[in-house]
Amino acid sequence: MGRDNWKIIRDRISADISGGQLEPGMQLPTESQLCQTFQAGRHSVRRAVAALAVEGKLRVEQGRGTFVQAAPLISYHIGRRTRFRQNLLEQGVSPAGEQLADSIVVAPAAVAAALSLPEGSAVHRLLRRGLADGVPISIGLSYHCATRFPDLGARRSAGESVTDIYRSHGIPDYFRKSTTIFTRRPTEDEASLLMQHPDQPVVVMQKTDVDAGGLPIGYSEAVWAGDRVQFTFDNQDEGPEAPESARGV
């Protein structure tokens, strides 16, 4: 091998992943074993592994080893009525969500504006992680008026869906008013929670939900693993309300 040793190693490992010889979750041989297999130096092996980690094909766990990333590619549809749980169930993927933190804080200026609240209003601040077949795909930071939904934090911690909580407060349905999307590099904590390489970009989605009367009821900023989700925007209004079993987490 010549100066591009690492590229050859990268491409051969990538081909083994695509061809199924290296299956999701499988642990790669040790660095020394890879050096022997490819008749290459440690620098070339490390560079190839790092490149595949950035592409989202490998996951390096300190003290454990390197593993093939078992991450499903989710096609996430965004329309007026967008639900995390429904999106995943329709693709045969098991959705799950876990609450990482919740508190009541003074609404930041941007949040107060998005929710049409006076400055200084108290809001629930919830941090959650979304998973698809057990693999992290998003981290969501959401805000809701603490006066209108006084029990929201506790009920979300107990596992209730936001749809059920809204309904108990007289909101039978809700819609997405606006969506803003951009990309950036993740913070160290975000990369850790998403179990991805810190150089792999994330997709940031900011959205505001409203009730049937157009009054803002929720604002959130979600950070998505860029290599695990692709987004489709639905231009037409959606049909009848989805059944309760398929509604939002």
Largest sheet: spatial strand order: 4-5-6-9-8-7
Q: What is the CATH H-level superfamily of the largest domain?
A: Chorismate lyase-like
Stretches where pLDDT is under 50 for at least 5 consecutive residues are 239-249
End-to-end C-alpha gap: 51 Å
- By CATH, the architecture of the largest domain is named 3-Layer(aba) Sandwich
Structural features, described:
The chain starts with a helix and ends in a 16-residue tail after the last strand. Helix 1 crosses helix 3 and helix 2 crosses helix 3. With 249 residues, it is an alpha+beta fold. The strands form three sheets. Strands 4-5-6-9-8-7 form a six-stranded antiparallel sheet. Helices cover 27% and strands 33% of the residues. It contains eight helices and ten strands. The chain folds into two domains: 64 residues, Orthogonal Bundle (Arc Repressor Mutant, subunit A), CATH 1.10.10; 173 residues, 3-Layer(aba) Sandwich (Chorismate lyase), CATH 3.40.1410.10. 31% of the residues are buried. It holds the Pfam family UTRA. InterPro entries: Bact_HTH_transcr_reg (IPR050679), Chorismate_lyase_/UTRA_dom_sf (IPR028978), CP_lyase_PhnF (IPR012702), Tscrpt_reg_HTH_GntR (IPR000524), UTRA (IPR011663), WH-like_DNA-bd_sf (IPR036388), WH_DNA-bd_sf (IPR036390). Keywords: DNA-binding, Transcription, Transcription regulation.
